[in-house]
């Protein structure tokens, strides 16, 4: 199986002058406000962290604030050689807050209302369902429903990566419950991509995920 090549993602930390917030009641000159917590919350034995958006822009519906919660039991058990995995996990969770979540799709610029909400929300032109009738199993052929992100840039990157000009888009995870299905790339297809649902190795942020950022209509992307 081909693995994605790692793209370097640079993040610049900026000190927040909270006295301005206290005086005015608002935060100016910020594109996104992130709240970080270390609480047990809804952590399970297998959860390292989780994140979500809080508020959206009233016109563009772009996320303008969100939170990430780090699960303290897992964090306190971290070994020195696991630091890179934790950094990858935090990047993964931030991408959920920024763009990659079932709660975001219907807010993408130009998105149509969802036509189905279960098991995975169907948003025409963004997330659609396809039925494969030639699914090969050990006991013979079967049919299977697959869910795919079909936005233009994601479709272009998926077709280029797999060398298939008829591919509808990029398949997303359909298992794992509401916290995983619909909000990750399919693990058996994309393996170590940063937004696959199970952390088995150091993730790589690929052009596929960057394409989703661009297709949302909220971000400008530098693929270099």
UniProtKB/TrEMBL annotation:
Top EC class of this enzyme: hydrolase
Keyword list, A-Z: Hydrolase, Metal-binding, Metalloprotease, Protease, Zinc
Family: Belongs to the peptidase M8 family.
Lineage of the organism: Eukaryota, Metazoa, Ecdysozoa, Nematoda, Chromadorea
GO process annotations (BP): cell adhesion; proteolysis
MF terms (GO), sorted A to Z: metal ion binding; metalloendopeptidase activity
Protein's recorded name: Leishmanolysin-like peptidase
One Gene Ontology cellular component: cytoplasm
A Pfam cross-reference name: Peptidase_M8
Organism: Ancylostoma caninum (Dog hookworm)
Binding residues for Zn(2+): 92, 96, 184
Enzyme Commission designation: 3.4.24.-
Origin: domain of life: Eukaryota
Reported cofactor(s): Zn(2+)
Record: active site: 93
Note describing how the cofactor binds: Binds 1 zinc ion per subunit.
InterPro entries: Peptidase_M8
């Amino acid at each position: 199986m081909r693995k994605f090549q790692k793209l370097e993602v640079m993040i610049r930390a900026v000190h927040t002058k909270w006295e301005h917030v206290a005086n005015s009641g608002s935060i100016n000159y910020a594109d996104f406000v992130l709240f970080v917590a270390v609480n047990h919350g809804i952590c399970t034995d297998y959860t390292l962290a989780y994140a979500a958006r809080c508020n959206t822009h009233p016109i563009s519906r772009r996320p303008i604030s969100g939170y990430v919660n780090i699960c303290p039991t897992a964090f306190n058990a971290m070994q020195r050689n696991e630091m890179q995995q934790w950094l990858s996990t935090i990047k993964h969770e931030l991408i959920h807050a920024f763009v990659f979540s079932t709660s975001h799709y219907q807010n993408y610029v130009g998105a149509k209302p969802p036509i189905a909400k279960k098991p995975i929300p169907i948003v025409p032109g963004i997330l659609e369902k396809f039925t494969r009738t030639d699914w090969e199993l050990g006991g013979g052929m079967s049919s299977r429903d697959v869910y795919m992100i079909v936005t233009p840039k994601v479709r272009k990157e998926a077709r280029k990566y797999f060398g298939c000009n008829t591919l509808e888009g990029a398949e997303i995870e359909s298992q794992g419950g509401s916290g995983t299905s619909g909000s990750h790339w399919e693990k058996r297809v994309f393996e170590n991509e940063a937004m696959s649902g199970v952390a088995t190795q150091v993730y790589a942020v690929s052009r596929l995920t960057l394409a989703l950022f661009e297709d949302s209509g909220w971000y400008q992307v530098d693929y270099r």
